Amino acid sequence: xxxxxxxxxxxxxxxxxxxxxxxxxxxxxxxxxxxxxxxxxxxxxxxxxxxxxxxxxxxxxxxxxxxxxxxxxxxxxxxxxxxxxxxxxxxxxxxxxxxxxxxxxxxxxxxxxxxxxxxxxxxxxxxxxxxxxxxxxxxxxxxxxxxxxx
Length: 150
Prior knowledge:
Blueprint: H1 2-24, H2 29-51, H3 63-101, E1 106-111, E2 117-123, H4 127-140, E3 147-149
Parallel strand pairs: 2-3
Antiparallel strand pairs: 1-2
């Protein structure tokens, strides 16, 4: 019974995250791709209980192979969520820099498995804008030693 409530909470959390992410996305081509990725994540979360049926002994089934497949699906799902989160952070960083400086710069955000921002790199920043970009990033996202401006 507890597994069902956890599964339900996972679905609700994923739907809330997807709605929030889609509200932040500007209309355009990238919104379609983000919606696709979020939809895939929701489908994976919804079918997760079916995957967990691996514990039921099926006549003639190769259970070690099923365990490996389920473990790889779980890892793939986690990687997909982290990559989506990373892309959303990059978009947010670029938007904040655009609002603060008035110029669009490319940002790369490295995220750990725990969702913590490990490093932010911003490319092509002019010497005149570097101090304002650094102030924006340090003030909102990461410590100074985790930011590189190129």
